[in-house]
Write a structure and sequence with these properties.
alpha+beta; three-stranded antiparallel sheet; 1 helix; 3 strands; Slowmo/Ups; PRELI/MSF1 domain-containing protein; PRELI/MSF1_dom
Length: 86
């Protein structure tokens, strides 16, 4: 599965395109490998590298939050299944 998103805020000076690719893990098809790509473009701003760094940091932080949320959801689901069997 592939997901694409585009940040449309401040399109005249800052844009961001992100792509997430989910594939079965080759060694264990029951697990998933996530690949994340982001392209950040800054136009006509003196602080271009600063803004790129800031946006990259935000994307990384959000990716970590998403990973933590999936871990919690998976753990909760597993615990619910375990307790239902007992």
């Amino acid at each position: 599965m592939e997901l694409k998103s585009t940040n449309s805020s401040f399109t005249n000076m800052l844009s961001g395109d992100e792509r997430l690719i989910y594939k079965p893990r080759p060694q264990d098809p029951e697990k998933t490998v996530l690949t994340q790509e982001a392209i950040i473009s800054v136009k006509g701003v003196n602080l271009g590298s600063y803004l790129q760094g800031l946006m990259a940091s935000m994307i990384s932080s959000n990716a970590n939050k998403g990973r933590e949320a999936l871990d919690v959801a998976h753990s909760t689901h597993f615990q619910n299944l375990l307790f239902k069997k007992l």
